[in-house]
Design a protein that fits this description.
There is one protein chain. With about 190 residues, this protein is mainly α. About 95% of the residues lie in helices and about 0% in strands. The protein has 3 helices and no strands. Helix 1 crosses helix 2.
């Protein structure tokens, strides 16, 4: 800071000696001409001195600033590169999973088709077994009913035959015939 103040003071001193104060008139025209020749040189020297001093004083902070900025940029680029690498690996993983999902879906689809076919076959086998059992039960019931109807028919026919025979015996049998039948029956016993 002291250096800046020294440079500014030196710059003001140089510029002050080159220009006369306001309100003073130049006494000699030749001196005025000489000062007018040196005025641009002094201005350039003053500007060069000012910029040189600023560069000298700001060089170290500027170097530190740009070095820090470079480190930040490099760090940011490394983070971006790491992030891109991570994103690429995650993208590859996602694409691999998507690829395996289609294979898994087709495997699941074929497995579900196989299970559905097995279940359908099992249901059909159960239904056939149930139908066979019902048919067999119906057949047994029909046989039982047929035997019972046959027995009833035989009983009715036997009753009708016995009744007819009894009627025939009553109307056509004589007492001698009845005795012979009784005797034959007793002999058989």
């Amino acid at each position: 800071m002291k250096r800046i103040l020294v440079l500014l003071l030196f710059s003001v001193l140089i510029s002050g000696t080159a220009y006369p104060a306001l309100g003073q008139e130049a006494e000699e025209p030749a001196a005025e001409h000489a000062e007018s020749l040196w005025a641009p040189v002094i201005r350039w020297f003053n500007a060069a001195l000012l910029f040189g001093g600023l560069i000298y004083l700001l060089r170290k902070p500027a170097i530190e600033f740009f070095a820090n900025r470079k480190k930040q940029i490099v760090t940011g680029m490394e983070r971006a590169r790491d992030a891109q690498t991570t994103a690429n690996s995650r993208m590859d993983e996602i694409e691999r999973r998507i690829g395996s999902l289609s294979a898994e879906l087709s495997a699941l689809r074929s497995e579900s088709d196989r299970l559905a076919a097995a279940e359908r076959d099992k249901i059909l086998a159960d239904a056939r077994r149930d139908v066979s059992r019902v048919v067999e039960q119906s057949r047994q019931e029909i046989d039982r009913l047929a035997r019972s109807i046959e027995r009833e028919i035989k009983e009715k026919i036997a009753d009708a035959v016995v009744e007819r025979a009894g009627e025939t015996l009553r109307t056509q049998m004589t007492e001698d015939d009845q005795k012979r039948v009784v005797v034959r029956f007793i002999k058989k016993l």
